[in-house]
């Protein structure tokens, strides 16, 4: 029975190991999530900047077309001024020319301000673009790394499964059935008894039961949590 017990402990070790591997596999994609969320946010901001830049460029192009038209109008106003026959016509043409010049000059100032703003936005876009590229590269690197880790975990999981199958063939069917039933319900099915206390539920077991398990002639059950129990070895006494 001692041999069976040792095999069962080894079986449980493979189950604990498999669970740890599965948890690691589950946690892997979650580690990439914050970076991906940040990337999405930055990409969206970058797109907004680009849209705004494009809209402003369009506005600037419209203004420049208007400025060209205004320049033509000024040329015509100058001709009108030169052709003025009377003082009154001259004064009127002059006023018209002045007004046109003022409007055009105001528009030019406005366009100049917008061009400066466009330059600033362009710099911002370039900086943000750089940031997005860096972050994207980092995430891609992380993904490659994670997929390598995942492959490694997969291999270890397969190896542990094989180890487990081998153990299953060496343990009594009856013990395995008891073990599996409890494992399904409680997760960890086999617990050491240390100084008369079950490590599964921290309850003391009757001294008589303790005497029985010390002899290692049978695999007993904890009266409180119903897990399979065994007397802890010397090195397990300090758990
Ligand atoms: Zn217990």
SSE layout:
Elements: H1 2-82, H2 87-170, H3 173-186, E1 190-194, E2 197-198, H4 207-215, E3 220-221, E4 228-231
Parallel strand pairs: 1-4
Antiparallel strand pairs: 1-2, 3-4
Helix pairs in contact: 1-2
The structure holds zinc ion.
Zinc ion binds at residues 198, 200-201, 203, 222, 224-225, 227.
Short synopsis of the structure:
Strands 2-1-4-3 form a four-stranded mixed β-sheet. The chain has two domains: 27-171, Helix Hairpins (Orthogonal Bundle), CATH 1.10.287.1700; 174-236, no CATH class. Helix content is 79%, strand content 5%.
Along the chain, the helix and strand elements come as HHHEEHEE
In CATH terms, what is the fold-level topology of the largest domain?
Answer: Helix Hairpins
Bound molecules: zinc ion
Strand order of the largest sheet: 2-1-4-3
CATH class of the largest domain: Mainly Alpha
Q: What share of residues are in beta strands?
A: 5-15%
Number of strands: 4
Name the poorly predicted regions.
none
Rg (CA only): 41 Å
CATH architecture of the largest domain: Orthogonal Bundle
The shape is: rod-shaped
Task: Give a quick account of the main beta sheet: strands, pairing sense, barrel closure.
Answer: 4 strands, mixed
Question: Number of helical segments?
Answer: 4
Overall average pLDDT: 94
| Total domain units | 2
Structure classification = mainly alpha
The span between the termini is 23 Å
Tell me roughly what share of residues is in helical segments: over 70%
Can you characterise this structure?
Helix 1 runs antiparallel to helix 2. The longest helix has 84 residues. The relative contact order is 0.12. This protein has 4 helices and 4 strands, in the order αααββαββ. By secondary structure, it is mostly helical. Strand 1 and strand 2 form a beta hairpin. It has a 4-stranded mixed sheet with strand order 2-1-4-3. The model has no long low-confidence stretch (mean pLDDT 94). 79% of the residues lie in helices and 5% in strands. It folds into 2 domains: 145 residues, Helix Hairpins, CATH 1.10.287; 63 residues, no CATH class. It binds zinc ion. Zinc ion (ZN) binds next to loops.
């Amino acid at each position: 029975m001692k041999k069976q017990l040792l095999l069962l402990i080894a079986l449980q070790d493979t189950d604990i190991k498999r669970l740890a591997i599965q948890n690691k596999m589950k946690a892997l994609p979650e580690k990439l999530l914050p970076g991906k969320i940040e990337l999405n946010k930055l990409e969206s901001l970058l797109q907004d900047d680009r849209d705004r830049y494009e809209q402003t460029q369009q506005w600037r192009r419209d203004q420049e077309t208007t400025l060209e038209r205004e320049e033509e109008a000024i040329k015509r106003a100058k001709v009108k001024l030169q052709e003025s026959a009377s003082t009154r016509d001259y004064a009127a043409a002059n006023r018209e020319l002045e007004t046109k010049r003022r409007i055009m000059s105001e528009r030019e100032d406005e366009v100049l301000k917008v061009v400066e703003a466009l330059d600033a936005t362009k710099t911002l876009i370039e900086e943000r673009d750089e940031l997005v590229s860096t972050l994207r590269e980092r995430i891609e690197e992380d993904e490659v790394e994670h997929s390598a880790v995942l492959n490694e975990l997969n291999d270890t999981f397969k190896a542990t499964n094989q180890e487990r199958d081998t153990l299953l063939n060496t343990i009594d069917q009856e013990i395995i059935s008891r073990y599996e039933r409890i494992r399904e319900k409680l997760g960890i099915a086999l617990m050491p008894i240390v100084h008369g206390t079950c490590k599964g539920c921290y309850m003391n077991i009757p001294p008589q039961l303790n005497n029985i398990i010390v002899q290692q002639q049978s695999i007993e059950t904890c009266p409180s949590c119903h897990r399979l129990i065994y007397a802890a070895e010397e090195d397990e006494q300090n758990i």
